[in-house]
Amino acid sequence: MRNRVLINRVAGCGLVLFLAGCALKPSQQATLYDRLGGNEGVTAIVDNLLYELAGNEKLIGFFEETDINRFRTKLIEQLCEVSDGPCRYSGDSMAKAHSNMTLNRSHFDSLVNDLIAAMDANDTPVAAQNDLLARLVPMYDEVMHPQKYLSDADQY
Ligand code: HEM
User: Fold this and answer.
1) How far is Cα 131 from Cα 125, in angstroms, rounded to an integer?
2) Most exposed of 1, 8, 39, 46 (fewest Cβ within 10 Å)?
């Protein structure tokens, strides 16, 4: 009788551990790219961002001469790479891309707000949103002060 109770307990624990293992594994293995919804999610986020930018009077002027198809493609690649997805960013350095603009903190904040709105519109989980924003933060200085990072070759 005692043996049977013990066996049930061991089997019960095994089941609990198995379920715990199943519950933990996917989130432990998922990349940020997966949590953003993979290619479909990242593409939707960038498309939502373009929509937000189109209605942003503070920022839209910067994009007057921009080839929007290229911007869209490069941004999708960049967000894919930075979130550990299977892409390689093939665009310009952040310094070169932003070298003809004089951006200030309020421009940067406005773009970040648009990106958050774009992710909200796509039902991106808040934790994944914060993780993506944290990976973009290190680019802040290069975007804001491109001249510090440009090589002579970039300038001509
Ligand atoms: C961490 C923040 C930012 C990231 C990751 C980022 C990313 C990018 C990328 C990937 C490109 C395309 C580069 C290429 O064509 O090779 C680009 C271009 C551009 N970005 Fe940003 N950007 C950021 C901040 C900003 C801000 C704050 C503005 C303000 C309006 C801005 C305005 C632009 C414009 C206008 C272009 C197109 C430039 C052109 O026409 O050649 N970006 N950015």
Assistant:
1) 10
2) 1
Residues with CB under 6 A from ligand 1: 59, 62-63, 65-66, 70-71, 74-75, 78, 91-92, 97-98, 103, 107-108, 111, 136, 139, 143
63 and 103 co-located in one domain: yes
Q: Tell whether 24 and 67 lie within a shared domain.
A: no
* Better pLDDT: 16 or 61: 61
Closest ligand 1 atom to 62 CA: 35
| Same domain, yes or no: 69 and 121 | yes
Find the 90 Cα to ligand 1 centroid distance in Å. Answer: 14
Looking at the fold, whether 114 and 145 belong to one and the same domain comes out as yes
Percent of the chain having pLDDT more than 70? 80
Q: Please tell me the total count of domains within the chain.
A: 2
Tell me what the pLDDT averaged over the chain comes to.
Answer: 88
Examine the pLDDT at 16 and tell me if it is beyond 50: no
Q: Which two tokens stand for residue 74?
A: 């490069």
| Range(s) of the domain holding residue 40 | 31-155
How big, in percent rounded to 5, are the helix, strand and coil portions of the chain? 75, 0, 25
